[in-house]
Amino acid sequence: MPLLLAGDIGGTKTHLGIFSQETGVRALLVEADFESAQFPDLTTITRNFLDGIKLTVDAACFGVAGPVSRGISKVTNLPWVLDERQLCRELNLKIVKLMNDLEALACAVPLLTSSDLHTLNEGRPVSKGNMAVIAPGTGLGEAFLTWDGMKYLGHASEGGHTDFAPNNTLEGELLTYLQEKIGHVSYERVCSGLGIVNIYCFLRERCYAEEPSWLTDTLALEKDPVPVIVSAAMDRDNRCDLCIMALKLFISILGAEAGNMALKIMATNGVYIGGGIPRRIVTLMENQEFMNSFRHKGRMSDLVSQMPVYIITNPRASLFGVAYYGFEYCVNLNTT
Question: With a threshold of 0.85, does the pTM exceed it?
Fold first, then answer.
Protein backbone atom coordinates (compact mmCIF):
# COMPACT_ATOMS: atom_id res chain seq x y z
CA MET A 1 0.00 0.00 0.00
CA PRO A 2 1.20 3.57 -0.72
CA LEU A 3 2.96 5.46 2.04
CA LEU A 4 2.52 9.20 2.54
CA LEU A 5 4.89 11.70 4.12
CA ALA A 6 2.81 14.27 6.01
CA GLY A 7 4.13 17.42 7.64
CA ASP A 8 2.80 20.18 9.87
CA ILE A 9 5.08 23.18 9.23
CA GLY A 10 4.92 25.87 11.90
CA GLY A 11 6.98 28.90 12.80
CA THR A 12 8.33 27.13 15.89
CA LYS A 13 8.07 23.41 15.16
CA THR A 14 7.95 21.10 12.14
CA HIS A 15 6.20 17.79 12.80
CA LEU A 16 6.72 15.04 10.21
CA GLY A 17 5.14 11.60 10.02
CA ILE A 18 4.63 8.62 7.74
CA PHE A 19 1.15 7.20 7.15
CA SER A 20 -0.13 4.14 5.34
CA GLN A 21 -3.44 4.08 3.49
CA GLU A 22 -3.99 0.60 4.92
CA THR A 23 -3.77 1.62 8.58
CA GLY A 24 -5.43 5.04 8.16
CA VAL A 25 -4.81 8.65 9.05
CA ARG A 26 -4.80 8.18 12.83
CA ALA A 27 -2.06 5.54 12.76
CA LEU A 28 1.41 7.05 12.51
CA LEU A 29 4.08 4.58 11.41
CA VAL A 30 6.89 6.91 12.48
CA GLU A 31 7.11 10.58 13.46
CA ALA A 32 9.60 13.24 14.55
CA ASP A 33 9.64 16.88 15.62
CA PHE A 34 12.18 19.49 14.51
CA GLU A 35 12.80 23.07 15.59
CA SER A 36 11.99 24.95 12.39
CA ALA A 37 14.34 27.88 12.91
CA GLN A 38 17.32 25.55 13.32
CA PHE A 39 17.16 24.58 9.64
CA PRO A 40 17.62 26.62 6.45
CA ASP A 41 14.63 25.08 4.67
CA LEU A 42 12.04 22.32 4.67
CA THR A 43 14.08 20.17 2.27
CA THR A 44 16.91 19.84 4.80
CA ILE A 45 14.53 18.83 7.59
CA THR A 46 12.74 16.32 5.39
CA ARG A 47 15.96 14.74 4.14
CA ASN A 48 17.18 14.37 7.73
CA PHE A 49 13.92 12.67 8.65
CA LEU A 50 13.79 10.32 5.65
CA ASP A 51 17.47 9.38 5.98
CA GLY A 52 16.80 8.14 9.49
CA ILE A 53 13.99 5.73 8.63
CA LYS A 54 13.74 2.62 6.46
CA LEU A 55 10.53 3.50 4.63
CA THR A 56 10.08 4.69 1.05
CA VAL A 57 7.49 7.30 0.16
CA ASP A 58 6.42 8.57 -3.25
CA ALA A 59 4.12 11.42 -2.18
CA ALA A 60 4.12 14.16 0.43
CA CYS A 61 1.64 16.67 1.76
CA PHE A 62 2.60 19.60 3.98
CA GLY A 63 0.39 21.89 6.04
CA VAL A 64 2.04 25.32 5.99
CA ALA A 65 1.61 28.23 8.41
CA GLY A 66 0.80 30.76 5.70
CA PRO A 67 -1.27 31.26 2.55
CA VAL A 68 -0.75 28.87 -0.36
CA SER A 69 -1.23 30.14 -3.91
CA ARG A 70 -0.57 28.12 -7.08
CA GLY A 71 1.56 25.63 -5.22
CA ILE A 72 3.80 28.22 -3.54
CA SER A 73 3.81 29.48 0.04
CA LYS A 74 5.85 31.96 2.07
CA VAL A 75 5.80 30.70 5.64
CA THR A 76 4.46 33.55 7.78
CA ASN A 77 6.90 33.37 10.70
CA LEU A 78 9.89 31.77 8.95
CA PRO A 79 12.19 32.94 6.12
CA TRP A 80 11.10 30.00 3.97
CA VAL A 81 9.46 29.96 0.55
CA LEU A 82 7.99 26.55 -0.32
CA ASP A 83 7.29 25.42 -3.89
CA GLU A 84 5.58 22.13 -4.72
CA ARG A 85 7.56 21.54 -7.91
CA GLN A 86 10.88 22.40 -6.32
CA LEU A 87 10.19 20.11 -3.35
CA CYS A 88 9.31 17.29 -5.77
CA ARG A 89 12.69 17.64 -7.45
CA GLU A 90 14.75 18.10 -4.29
CA LEU A 91 13.10 15.21 -2.44
CA ASN A 92 12.79 12.95 -5.49
CA LEU A 93 9.05 12.44 -4.98
CA LYS A 94 6.32 11.91 -7.56
CA ILE A 95 3.94 14.47 -6.08
CA VAL A 96 4.04 17.12 -3.34
CA LYS A 97 1.01 19.08 -2.18
CA LEU A 98 1.02 22.21 -0.01
CA MET A 99 -1.99 23.30 2.00
CA ASN A 100 -2.66 25.90 4.66
CA ASP A 101 -2.01 24.48 8.14
CA LEU A 102 -5.39 25.61 9.50
CA GLU A 103 -7.16 24.05 6.54
CA ALA A 104 -5.33 20.87 7.58
CA LEU A 105 -6.56 21.22 11.16
CA ALA A 106 -10.07 21.81 9.84
CA CYS A 107 -9.83 18.58 7.81
CA ALA A 108 -8.98 16.78 11.04
CA VAL A 109 -12.01 18.00 13.00
CA PRO A 110 -14.47 15.36 11.63
CA LEU A 111 -11.90 12.68 12.51
CA LEU A 112 -11.63 13.67 16.18
CA THR A 113 -13.25 11.79 19.04
CA SER A 114 -14.26 12.88 22.52
CA SER A 115 -10.84 11.78 23.81
CA ASP A 116 -9.22 14.39 21.53
CA LEU A 117 -11.31 17.25 22.91
CA HIS A 118 -11.95 19.23 26.07
CA THR A 119 -15.39 20.84 26.25
CA LEU A 120 -15.64 24.49 27.31
CA ASN A 121 -19.28 24.94 26.30
CA GLU A 122 -21.66 22.08 25.51
CA GLY A 123 -24.09 24.32 23.67
CA ARG A 124 -26.66 22.86 21.30
CA PRO A 125 -24.85 21.57 18.20
CA VAL A 126 -26.69 21.69 14.89
CA SER A 127 -25.95 18.62 12.78
CA LYS A 128 -24.23 19.50 9.48
CA GLY A 129 -23.94 23.14 10.57
CA ASN A 130 -20.79 25.15 9.94
CA MET A 131 -17.77 24.73 12.23
CA ALA A 132 -15.00 27.21 13.09
CA VAL A 133 -11.35 26.49 13.89
CA ILE A 134 -9.04 28.99 15.58
CA ALA A 135 -5.52 28.12 16.67
CA PRO A 136 -3.05 30.37 18.51
CA GLY A 137 0.51 29.09 18.18
CA THR A 138 3.52 31.08 17.02
CA GLY A 139 0.93 33.04 15.01
CA LEU A 140 -2.87 32.91 14.87
CA GLY A 141 -4.55 30.60 12.37
CA GLU A 142 -8.23 30.50 11.44
CA ALA A 143 -10.26 28.19 9.20
CA PHE A 144 -13.79 26.82 8.90
CA LEU A 145 -15.78 23.84 7.65
CA THR A 146 -18.98 23.62 5.61
CA TRP A 147 -21.17 20.62 4.75
CA ASP A 148 -21.35 19.89 1.01
CA GLY A 149 -24.19 17.36 1.22
CA MET A 150 -21.86 14.37 1.59
CA LYS A 151 -19.01 15.42 3.87
CA TYR A 152 -17.36 18.39 5.54
CA LEU A 153 -14.97 20.53 3.51
CA GLY A 154 -12.21 22.58 5.16
CA HIS A 155 -11.54 26.16 4.03
CA ALA A 156 -8.42 28.20 4.74
CA SER A 157 -8.44 31.85 5.75
CA GLU A 158 -6.02 34.52 6.93
CA GLY A 159 -8.47 35.89 9.48
CA GLY A 160 -5.78 36.11 12.13
CA HIS A 161 -4.42 39.16 10.32
CA THR A 162 -7.63 41.19 10.57
CA ASP A 163 -7.69 44.35 12.70
CA PHE A 164 -7.63 43.91 16.47
CA ALA A 165 -10.70 45.51 18.09
CA PRO A 166 -10.38 46.25 21.83
CA ASN A 167 -13.38 45.61 24.07
CA ASN A 168 -12.38 47.62 27.15
CA THR A 169 -10.05 50.36 28.36
CA LEU A 170 -7.12 48.03 29.07
CA GLU A 171 -7.30 46.50 25.60
CA GLY A 172 -7.58 50.00 24.15
CA GLU A 173 -4.33 50.94 25.88
CA LEU A 174 -2.74 47.75 24.52
CA LEU A 175 -3.81 48.71 21.00
CA THR A 176 -2.34 52.20 21.33
CA TYR A 177 0.90 50.80 22.79
CA LEU A 178 1.35 48.39 19.87
CA GLN A 179 0.33 50.92 17.23
CA GLU A 180 3.14 53.15 18.44
CA LYS A 181 5.59 50.27 18.14
CA ILE A 182 4.53 48.37 15.01
CA GLY A 183 1.78 50.31 13.23
CA HIS A 184 -0.95 47.91 12.13
CA VAL A 185 -2.17 45.66 14.94
CA SER A 186 -3.84 42.42 13.91
CA TYR A 187 -5.34 39.77 16.17
CA GLU A 188 -2.19 37.71 15.61
CA ARG A 189 -0.19 40.44 17.36
CA VAL A 190 -2.18 39.95 20.58
CA CYS A 191 -3.57 36.42 20.28
CA SER A 192 -0.63 34.07 19.68
CA GLY A 193 2.76 33.24 21.13
CA LEU A 194 3.96 36.53 19.68
CA GLY A 195 0.90 38.13 21.22
CA ILE A 196 1.62 36.81 24.72
CA VAL A 197 5.05 38.44 24.59
CA ASN A 198 3.52 41.72 23.35
CA ILE A 199 0.92 41.68 26.12
CA TYR A 200 3.51 40.83 28.76
CA CYS A 201 5.81 43.68 27.67
CA PHE A 202 2.88 46.12 27.61
CA LEU A 203 1.80 45.23 31.15
CA ARG A 204 5.39 45.38 32.43
CA GLU A 205 6.27 48.67 30.76
CA ARG A 206 2.99 50.31 31.85
CA CYS A 207 3.62 49.05 35.42
CA TYR A 208 0.42 47.03 35.80
CA ALA A 209 2.46 44.47 37.72
CA GLU A 210 6.09 44.06 38.69
CA GLU A 211 8.45 41.56 37.09
CA PRO A 212 10.13 39.53 39.88
CA SER A 213 13.91 39.34 39.76
CA TRP A 214 13.96 35.55 39.40
CA LEU A 215 11.79 35.86 36.28
CA THR A 216 14.06 38.56 34.83
CA ASP A 217 17.01 36.21 35.25
CA THR A 218 15.13 33.26 33.72
CA LEU A 219 13.91 35.23 30.71
CA ALA A 220 17.44 36.45 30.03
CA LEU A 221 18.54 32.84 29.49
CA GLU A 222 15.71 31.80 27.16
CA LYS A 223 15.33 32.41 23.42
CA ASP A 224 11.57 31.90 23.58
CA PRO A 225 9.91 33.70 26.51
CA VAL A 226 6.45 32.21 25.92
CA PRO A 227 6.95 28.88 27.78
CA VAL A 228 8.50 30.79 30.69
CA ILE A 229 5.57 33.21 30.91
CA VAL A 230 3.02 30.39 30.63
CA SER A 231 4.76 28.26 33.26
CA ALA A 232 5.07 31.20 35.66
CA ALA A 233 1.36 31.95 35.25
CA MET A 234 0.40 28.37 36.12
CA ASP A 235 2.88 27.73 38.94
CA ARG A 236 0.92 27.67 42.19
CA ASP A 237 4.06 27.57 44.33
CA ASN A 238 5.85 30.48 42.66
CA ARG A 239 3.06 32.84 41.76
CA CYS A 240 3.79 35.62 39.26
CA ASP A 241 1.04 38.24 39.07
CA LEU A 242 2.45 39.80 35.90
CA CYS A 243 2.34 36.48 34.03
CA ILE A 244 -1.13 35.67 35.34
CA MET A 245 -2.41 39.05 34.17
CA ALA A 246 -0.80 38.54 30.75
CA LEU A 247 -2.41 35.11 30.29
CA LYS A 248 -5.82 36.34 31.45
CA LEU A 249 -5.72 39.19 28.94
CA PHE A 250 -4.58 36.81 26.19
CA ILE A 251 -7.41 34.38 27.01
CA SER A 252 -10.00 37.15 27.05
CA ILE A 253 -8.89 38.40 23.62
CA LEU A 254 -8.88 34.83 22.28
CA GLY A 255 -12.44 34.35 23.54
CA ALA A 256 -13.58 37.54 21.85
CA GLU A 257 -12.02 36.61 18.50
CA ALA A 258 -13.37 33.05 18.69
CA GLY A 259 -16.81 34.57 19.23
CA ASN A 260 -16.29 36.94 16.29
CA MET A 261 -15.43 33.99 14.07
CA ALA A 262 -18.39 31.98 15.33
CA LEU A 263 -20.73 34.78 14.27
CA LYS A 264 -19.08 35.44 10.91
CA ILE A 265 -19.48 31.86 9.71
CA MET A 266 -22.48 30.86 11.88
CA ALA A 267 -20.59 28.03 13.57
CA THR A 268 -23.71 26.28 14.85
CA ASN A 269 -21.98 22.87 14.96
CA GLY A 270 -19.05 24.03 17.05
CA VAL A 271 -15.96 26.17 17.54
CA TYR A 272 -12.70 24.23 17.82
CA ILE A 273 -9.66 25.79 19.46
CA GLY A 274 -6.36 24.31 18.33
CA GLY A 275 -2.72 25.28 18.62
CA GLY A 276 -0.09 24.44 21.18
CA ILE A 277 -0.92 27.19 23.68
CA PRO A 278 -4.59 26.41 24.56
CA ARG A 279 -3.97 22.74 25.26
CA ARG A 280 -1.19 23.73 27.69
CA ILE A 281 -3.43 26.13 29.61
CA VAL A 282 -6.71 24.19 29.74
CA THR A 283 -7.20 24.94 33.45
CA LEU A 284 -6.89 28.68 32.79
CA MET A 285 -9.17 28.46 29.75
CA GLU A 286 -11.87 26.99 32.01
CA ASN A 287 -12.00 30.21 34.01
CA GLN A 288 -14.55 32.89 33.20
CA GLU A 289 -12.38 35.11 30.97
CA PHE A 290 -12.69 33.02 27.82
CA MET A 291 -16.40 32.23 27.77
CA ASN A 292 -17.41 35.67 29.07
CA SER A 293 -15.60 37.27 26.12
CA PHE A 294 -16.92 34.63 23.71
CA ARG A 295 -20.52 35.35 24.72
CA HIS A 296 -20.13 39.14 24.94
CA LYS A 297 -21.77 39.88 21.57
CA GLY A 298 -24.60 42.26 22.44
CA ARG A 299 -27.81 41.26 20.67
CA MET A 300 -26.12 38.08 19.40
CA SER A 301 -25.04 36.85 22.85
CA ASP A 302 -27.82 34.26 23.06
CA LEU A 303 -26.92 32.93 19.61
CA VAL A 304 -23.24 32.33 20.36
CA SER A 305 -24.09 30.87 23.77
CA GLN A 306 -25.75 27.96 21.93
CA MET A 307 -22.60 27.13 19.98
CA PRO A 308 -20.41 24.30 21.35
CA VAL A 309 -16.79 25.20 22.12
CA TYR A 310 -13.97 22.66 22.34
CA ILE A 311 -10.21 22.71 22.91
CA ILE A 312 -8.37 20.24 20.66
CA THR A 313 -6.07 18.43 23.07
CA ASN A 314 -4.50 15.91 20.66
CA PRO A 315 -1.15 17.38 19.50
CA ARG A 316 -1.25 15.22 16.34
CA ALA A 317 -4.58 16.57 15.09
CA SER A 318 -3.07 18.81 12.39
CA LEU A 319 -0.96 15.95 11.10
CA PHE A 320 -4.09 13.75 10.86
CA GLY A 321 -5.69 16.44 8.72
CA VAL A 322 -2.65 16.70 6.45
CA ALA A 323 -2.65 12.91 6.02
CA TYR A 324 -6.38 12.87 5.22
CA TYR A 325 -5.91 15.54 2.56
CA GLY A 326 -2.78 13.86 1.26
CA PHE A 327 -4.48 10.50 0.72
CA GLU A 328 -7.39 12.24 -1.00
CA TYR A 329 -5.37 14.45 -3.33
CA CYS A 330 -1.83 13.02 -3.52
CA VAL A 331 -1.73 9.25 -3.15
CA ASN A 332 -5.01 8.59 -4.96
CA LEU A 333 -3.99 10.84 -7.84
CA ASN A 334 -0.58 9.18 -7.89
CA THR A 335 -2.00 5.70 -8.15
CA THR A 336 -4.72 6.25 -10.75
Answer: yes
